[in-house]
Amino acid sequence: MGLANQPTSEHAGDGLELRHARMIAAVRCAPPANKPTPEERDTCNPWFRRELELVLPSTRVIVCLGKFGFDVLLGALEGLGGVVPKPRAKFGHGVEYVVPVGDTEVTVMGSFHPSQQNTFTGKLTERMQDEILARAMTLAGVQAAH
After folding, report:
1. Is residue 19 part of a domain?
2. Where does the Uracil-DNA glycosylase-like domain lie (predicted)?
């Protein structure tokens, strides 16, 4: 799709490079049962918020993978002075919200998390994920690499 130089990554150091994209995690470790607790979220929040603060001035679109990431991002944007929709934005695959933050605005998009639970059951298909990323690229003004 043009966001990376290769279609998969097998291990650290395999040459994967993102283009016009960055990944940041709400929780930086794999929690038990892959279900982060509020305590883990709160422990990682200062690092998440700082990284978001650093990239926000040049960021046009943020794709949140899963409801957990969506909720953490909205809280962080609000903490940075963002005007989050009221009532609170509802998570869903393909939802979009424009959030003004200071002198800029960012489009927040929801996507089901690409976990095995979602991909093996068909809740999230490759086509669905491709459509979300294509939409994000369009909103960000990024051309697909050939």
Report:
1. no
2. 15-134
